[in-house]
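Lab meeting notes turned into a lecture example. A postdoc, R.K., suggested we walk through two folding results consecutively so the class can see how the record format repeats. The first protein's sequence and structure tokens come next.
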Amino acid sequence: MRRNIKLRVKNLVKKYNTTDPYKICQKLGIIVIYEDLGIVKGFCKSTMGMKIIMINSVFSTFAQKIILAHELGHAILHSDYDTAFMKDHFLNYSDILENEANKFAAELLINAYDNDNIEYCDYYCDEVSTDEFDRELLNRLREFRFSNKYLNI
């Protein structure tokens, strides 16, 4: 189930001329809805041929963008699978899907930076937000972007 996520993101960015997950969703016809989802950060579902991404409105705008990029990854990478069936019947399948969606979000959101300059991302992390949850999300995103973690599946 290995995918060249980096290439998929690169082609998507080239096609739509943006790394903004909001704009990409709009161009793909994916509906994005914001609601208080309790402890759930977000999810993606298909209903009657339409893709819908739900984002928890209680999170910061910064966190919502990362969550949206992650859910967009599910919408693009996993739309042709019965993920509910696979999660229930295959050990660690959920981890595989989540790792792929995390890698997709990392490639999309950190794509514009110099790939070899990790120090720039450290600086960027310091400048973006002082919120601890936001910084944790960005650091996890950096980890996925600059490692091959998702390949250990």
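The second example is placed directly after the first for contrast:
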Amino acid sequence: MALMITDDCINCDVCEPECPNEAIYMGPQIYEIDPDKCTECVGHFEEPQCQQVCPVACIPFNPAWRESREQLMEKYERLQAEAKRS
């Protein structure tokens, strides 16, 4: 699963710089997570860093975007390959 940011977000700006995949960005009203870039930090860390730093615990797993650990690792590897080409 990718992660998502709920309406409880207070726009504190602590999650965005913690994302190793640059999946977090400012949306129209609150921060949002691009599920195509979110690997739940698989490949980088043991736990999602945004969840670790969020002071209001508003970053749950997105039930609409289910992925296995293997799929998340494949996404991580794809994103790393794309970053090297850029």
